[in-house]
Amino acid sequence: xxxxxxxxxxxxxxxxxxxxxxxxxxxxxxxxxxxxxxxxxxxxxxxxxxxxxxxxxxxxxxxxxxxxxxxxxxxxxxxxxxxxxxxxxxxxxxxxxxxxxxxxxxxxxxxxxxxxxxxxxxxxxxxxxxxxxxxxxxxxxxxxxxxxxxxxxxxxxxxxxxxxxxxxxxxxxxxxxxxxxxxxxxxxxxxxxxxxxxxxxxxxxxxxxxxxxxxxxxxxxxxxxxxxxxxxxxxxxxxxxxxxxxxxxxxxxxxxxxxxxxxxxxxxxxxxxxxxxxxxxxxxxxxxxxxxxxxxxxxxxxxxxxxxxxxxxxxxxxxxxxxxxxxxxxxxxxxxxxxxxxxxxxxxxxxxxxxxxxxxxxxxxxxxxxxxxxxxxxxxxxxxxxxxxxxxxxxxxxxxxxxxxxxxxx
Length: 410
Hints:
This protein is of the alpha+beta class.
């Protein structure tokens, strides 16, 4: 079902924080909005609906045929083109029907239903991809905003440092070189802020592409729980698609095997003659498969080869999904360990150094330059920690949202 502009706007208003200090937009709200407005998912659902409608006609008998004609019409002599002068001339009307056995029609219907299932799997995959891309965009915006906050903080420190350097120069306790160095440091900090602001704006545009709006504030991303390896592999879009392809290939083989038995046709016609008895004609047409081994059996063999191909692709997709899960899960563990180690061994000591430097500066035991250096170092370590946390969140999002999630489709 498509989402009209009025409904999309109403949903956006419902999901976005209202003005005046309401809660920030959450990841779950962003995912819901993205799925509701996804045109890729809408196209896939329309494709599924098309296949479903076609499946309803697959098991039906062919339409009957109406035939109307004139037999033995004179074309020469005094009775030419007369339908009543000659007793052999007969006006005829008839019907014919191709009769397809019920098991063959059932095989065709099952093959069409397998295609419906495959298209439905494609729709689920489109929803899963929308969720994944939205989650990654959300994570990028959140961490880009955090990086901008750190860059702005570092720029503020640089402003304080240059003002202090100018004050020392005015009191003859500093040098012009100190002012120049502080000016250069401020320029670098301002450039870092501009770069972080640009990155945050670019990330926000990509998120807006998925959810349709540009929220003012995002809540910290809370990624869904990680599935088990078996669940991840079974729900991987490529695996589900390959599994449906196997079913379609098997159903096509069943149809091809049933075609070894020809379809019969029956005909009935009524003929009207002038001055003589009217006549009814009955008949049955039976195709003769005189080269079954060279035609029908060849087609069945071709379909059998496609079944083998689909099964091999399914196994390959399963292996690829298994390897992908193990790689992502290993990355999650590695990144979590690095973050914990980096926070304990680097960020906490850097913060403690800053606190100690502030205490020393207040007691006139540490210079202002040392204080600025300590604060800048702490911000830099927080940036590196933020980069690791962003990488971990993106990896967790791939584990959680790349597989198809039942019930995610609106």
